[in-house]
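INFO  loader      accepted 1 record
INFO  loader      residues=164
INFO  predictor   begin
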Amino acid sequence: MAFKRTIPMLFLLALMSSACYWQPVPAPTVRPVIDASPTAAALAPTPVPTSQPDLGTITGTLNRENKPDIPITSADLFLAEILSGADNTLSVAALDMNAAPKANTGADGRFAFVDVPPGTYTLVIRTPLGALLIPDPNSGHDLLIPVTADKTIALGQLYVNLPY
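INFO  predictor   done
INFO  writer      dumping C-alpha cells
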C-alpha cells in the first residue's frame, strides 16, 4: 500500500519540479538611438516652382482652422475659375475637376499650382463630403486669386474648417 502512495507522490513531485525549471533569459537587445533631429536639408526652404512663360504660379500652406498647428496633408486642391456676368454684378465659381488646375498638399500642408492660365480663380478643397471653397484668411469671404502671366502669387497660411 505504501508503494501505491509513493508513485502518485513521485508524480506530483516531478510535476512540481518541472514547473520550477529555470531557464536563462536572454539579455535584452540594445537598439541604436536614431537621431530624429531635422537635418539641414529638411530645414532648407522648399524651392518655389516656376511656370512656363505667359502662365502663373500659386503657392501656399493649408492648415485646419480649429487646429492651426496641424497641416492638412494629402488633400486634393483645385482652382475654380470665376465667371462674371455681362455687367460684372454676378460671379460664379466654375469647377470641372477633370480640367481644372490641380495640386496636392504635402506633409507640411504646402501646395503649388504651376502653369496656371491668367484669370481669376478661387481655391477649392475636395473632401469626402464634397468640395469646399477656402475662405480668405483676412476677410472670411471667398478667396479670389487674380493670376497674371509670369507672376508667382504666395497666398501664405490658409485655414479651412473641415467637417470631419
